Amino acid sequence: MNRSTCCARHRSAAGGLVLIVAAGALAAATRGAGAQVPTTLEDFFLAGTQPNGPDNPIVLEPFAGVFTGNCVNCHAGFPPQYQAAEPFRNWAGSMMAQAVRDPVFLASLTVANQDAADAGDLCLRCHTPAGWLSGRSFPTDGSALSEPVDFEGVSCHFCHRMVDPIDPSGVGPPQDEAILDQLAQAGLLPTQYGSAKYVVDPEKKVRRGPLDGINHPQGAEAIYSPFHTVSAICATCHDVSNPAFMRQPDDTYVLTDLDAPHPTGEQYDMFPVERTYSEWSQSQFAQGGVVMDGRFGGNLPDDVPISSCQDCHMPDQIGPGANQGTVRPDAPQHAFNGGNIWVLDAVRALYPDATTGLNDGIVADSHVRTLQMLADASDLELEQTDPSTLRVRIVNWTGHKLPSGYPEGRRMWINVRFFDEADLLLVEHGGYDFATADLDAASTKVYESLLGVDEAVSAATGIPVGESFHFAVNNIVLKDNRIPPIGFTNEGFAAVQAAPVDHAYADGQHWDDTDYDIPPGAASAVVTIYYQSTSKAYIEFLLAANTTDDRGQVAHDQWLAQAMSAPVVMDSQMIVLTGPSIPGDLNGDGVVNGADLGLLLGDWGACPPDACPADLNGDGTVDGADLGLLLGEWGG
After folding, report:
1. pLDDT-derived band at 581, boundaries 50, 70, 90
2. How far apart are CA 309 and CA 248, in angstroms?
3. Secondary structure of the chain: what % helix, strand, coil (to 5)?
4. CA 407 from centroid of its chain's CA atoms
């Protein structure tokens, strides 16, 4: 069933429910916890190229599959020295390729549809754009997806057919003008990037990309696209807004009129789910870049500023773009690595390699890149600010908040362990039990974004007021202490709905300090920064909340099988601590006793103060006054 047909059917079927909501103050609440908001596809309508269907004036030619098309024929099978540049190998090992096979995504998709009817349409737009555009995304649980290309996630042909919907610099290919004009005439031209408001070339024999002067021998036209060189293309799916909510003048969010598109269609009038691109847009990376001295950028010279998303997530490599192509120094690596480790292993456990394109080497290489990405994301600095205080500073060197992206279940925290002289553990903050996946969050700082529902949404759904993993109906931000990027300003982040919540950062601050009390007898401390993609609380929520299928069970089973999304070490350091000085502790063992008395008596008499620790009062003589001071601290 195509989207246009299903929309018309759903509008007429939902009319009675809309009246109930309007007249009965969201009377669905009488159904108790888990009541579904009666939204329709119209509530999640967004501008851009629309799915094929009888009511769509723009007909899209089919999308080529990575395997069934020609992609693997020319863009796979590179020799070992150029595998870092091979498009297929690196794409297959990315979450982009496995976006619609990800069991956590599928479980959350089910919950979204349970919470708000047809909310899954918003999810499928990004996780299977070829399936969505081909009209196979309804029902919105993904059950109508059928073609191989539908399950290839964010596939080659989709990205390389993308058109800049705004083209603010006016440098797009000349072919774009007619495409954008057609959308404008239909009232479908986007005015902002984000939330999968993408525009694609209707013609299938087109390959757009960031390299100019490319010869494509297979007959498809190779078009140089400046859009593919800038971060705006990444905004397409890395700024996500929920159009079922309308922002109010007091910065609260209320449900829009049901069975109708968002009143303005502007993303900053919708509830913010993800703001990774917007965070970047308000950073120094977007304003000329940051010299990173080789931390990111692949083959770029170390003194070249890092600026775009691609500089970090598609870094330049030495190699050809195709297996018969010319070796070049700026071949974009199609790896798209972020911070997720375990889901790739889960995908491989659930699907055959022949379907996913994965193998041992591809998965291992992807894990190495991800671990390096996490290690490069920040710096850890330790300082003993006084005898009783350890300060932990985390410096964010990414182009967005740390961490960023989809907020549910994703977190970073500080683990601090204090040891005595014998290296015995005295105190631990932020302890994590790897056997049970339980975190002692109360004893440390956890960096995360926590969303929830207010009284109105609670009344509509039966979900308790407060923190919630029900992202499709969440409408409040309860906490967001994630560390901003360099160039951060409070005004800029507030303008893009990304302001810190329940935490304060000064303009220009891209680090965060946390102080810990040093326990008595501590001689050293080991501080570790951990990152986790999927918390125990989130995976158990998906298990419990999935009531219409088994996707929550599948995701939970895989989470258990893949080490429960074991936390990844981003950074770790040890610091030797200097304890408070005790008058009379002449040998520095932390206690005043007979050994110290012997040292004092051995220095009895006149002695230079700078060479006589036993001269406790500094008068140049070790005498009864010093003995009295020592005895006064006896046993201390």
Report:
1. confident
2. 31
3. 35, 20, 50
4. 7
Separation of alpha carbons 626 and 597, rounded Å: 10
pTM for the whole structure: 0.89
Tell which residue, 529, 496, 536, 497, has the closest CA to residue 378. 529
Q: Is the peptide bond before 580 cis (omega within 30 degrees of 0)?
A: no
Count of beta carbons in the 10 Å neighbourhood of residue 555: 27
CA angle 508, 512, 513 (to 5 degrees): 130
The two structure tokens encoding residue 457: 């949404």
One-letter-per-residue 3-state SS of 66-77: CCCCCHHHHHCC
Q: What is the mean pLDDT of residues 553-562?
A: 99
Q: What is the CA radius of gyration of the chain?
A: 29
Confidence of residue 526 (pLDDT cuts 50, 70, 90): very high
Side chain identity, residue 68: T
Torsion of CA 88, 89, 95, 96, to 10 degrees: -10
Q: Report d(CA 180, CA 163) in Å as an integer.
A: 9
From residue 192, give the alpha-carbon distance in Å to each of 161, 241, 567. 19, 12, 36
CB-count burial class (<10 Å; 0-12, 13-18, 19+) for 288: exposed
Q: Which residues pair with 28 in a beta bridge?
A: none
Q: Which residues pair with 381 in a beta bridge?
A: 393
Residue whose C-alpha is closest to residue 537's, from 626, 447, 409: 409
According to DSSP, the residues that pair with 526 across neighbouring strands are 417, 574
Q: Fill in the amino acid letter for 520.
A: P
Which token pair is 192?
């902002």
pLDDT in tens, 412-470: 999 999 999 999 999 999 999 999 999 999 999 999 999 999 999 999 999 999 999 99
